[in-house]
Amino acid sequence: MSNSTSPQSIQLLEEGEGATFPPGFVWGAATAAYQIEGAVHEGGRSASIWDTFSHTPGRVLHGHTGDVACDHYHRYRDDVKLMAELGLKAYRLSVAWPRIQPDGHGPGNQAGLDFYRRLADELLEHGIEPWVTLYHWDLPQAIEDAGGWPNRDTAARFAEYAELTHAALGDRVQHWITLNEPWCSAFLGYGSGVHAPGRTNPGEAVRAAHHLMLGHGLATRAIRAARPDAEVGITLNLYAVSPQTSSDGDADAARRIDGLANRIFLDPVLRGSYPSDVVADLAAVTDLGHVRDGDLETISTPMSFLGINYYSRHVVAAPVEGVEPEPYWRAQSCWPGSEQVRFVTRGVPVTDMNWEIDAPGLTETLQRVHRDYPELPLYITENGSAFVDELVDGRVDDADRLGYFEAHLRACHTAIGSGVPLRGYFAWSLLDNYEWAWGYTKRFGMVYVDYESQRRIPKSSARWYADVIRRNGLAAQ
Ligand code: FCB
User: Which Gene3D superfamilies does the annotation name (predicted)?
Assistant: First the structure.
């Protein structure tokens, strides 16, 4: 198998040694609009697919919604102060499309643009560079009503929104991320339906993936046309994928899942083509008739960087006749054409999401992208973990989360040492927040949020991260 790496090749990392990062390494933290802002009816904002989804009974655990979330829309000044206290060099935020184009088209809504201008100004005044993600899953409901991402026109709508948001913020913002994790938008949103808009149609999921990438290419061109020196990239959620055993069947399962999780985005965006084995795997689902001449050229418009979100490894095995696979994250239908592949747990430590902790997989993922695709600067735009936190005497001692960050930063350091051009790291997340279909039940923050009082309490991991930033690396243990 040429495109994924066997477990045997995982390198053991130097344990306990100090690790200094290259000068200028970007130390940041990330959030997303719907997960923290609240104020869903203010400033002319309209409904997004996540408002509709979260207000539909049965979709989100305990019926939690993002109506209030961390109330960041009103508390952004205090939140930026907190970021400055932690010494963050950069902050990755997302713009809520329904604040900018409440009806999904037309001129920018002034109140919405002004909010992000004020936020960017506040960050810059504190010496923190804003990194803007244009789409972190909150499609205006009006666009979903017109067909959503399976509809080709949504790509053009997105480019228009990107252009006018850039026109309003381009004097303040240098780094632009078009999409966050199109895999989730397409395959969880339209395949398994566990994310908004909650549709379950494998063919539509594949169409959505294509139109998301087309939107990315068109938006990249629009921003570049307005400002040739803008830094524009995309964020993909990449997984290390490995077979359970060295059998041919398991190797094929790993090839399939690597194809549908990673290469279905990496290849079009970075090589201008769909991987032929993935096209063959998808044959029963779609003939890719929605792909038009010139699309792949647009999709592969050169980028300034690639953003990678890394959380875990998939270990997979061949289907077993007559045995239904354990659902992957509540439904197998997010793997069109490969629904029978089995996801295997290895009994290694997991986070509160039940995701296996696999820091070497991060090194492997970075090295693989560097080896298999044209060279470009890489950033970890998300990495982090949910654990059950306990607030005791006003403190949260989150040793597990701290350990997760440390192991993954060591993995980044190892990758850099082997020649990978990794230029920065954004911890997920600054604050505990609305974890999509899990509502407020999963805490990923370095800063604890007491949702009743909206008090913010930096956890031990936040204090530790501040120290990492100060010394530009990890202390020897
Ligand atoms: C990623 C999302 C982010 C957050 C983390 C835990 O898939 O981009 O919003 O939910 O997972």
Answer: Glycosidases
Averaged confidence pLDDT in the chain = 95
Task: Supply the DSSP string of 248-268, one letter for each residue.
Answer: HHHHHHHHHHHIIIIIHHHHH
The Cα 47–Cα 33 span in angstroms is 13
Strands 422-428 and 378-382: parallel
Q: Which of 93, 334, 436, 440 to mutate to test the pocket of ligand 1 (most atoms within 8 A of CB)?
A: 436
Residue 185, both tokens: 């938008």
Q: Helix 460-471 to helix 72-86 angle, to the nearest 10 degrees?
A: 50
Q: How far apart are CA 95 and CA 63, in angstroms?
A: 24
C-beta of residue 38 within 8 angstroms of C-beta of residue 433: no
Judge whether 432 and 72 are in contact, CB under 8 Å: no
Taking the C-alpha atoms of residue 68 and residue 96, their distance in angstroms, rounded to an integer, is: 15
State the Cα–Cα distance between residues 48 and 40, nearest whole angstrom: 9
Catalogue the active-site residues: 181, 382
d(CA 227, CA 67): 35
Weakest mean pLDDT among 4-8, 13-17, 376-380, 411-415: 4-8
What integer pLDDT is reported at residue 14 of this predicted model? 53
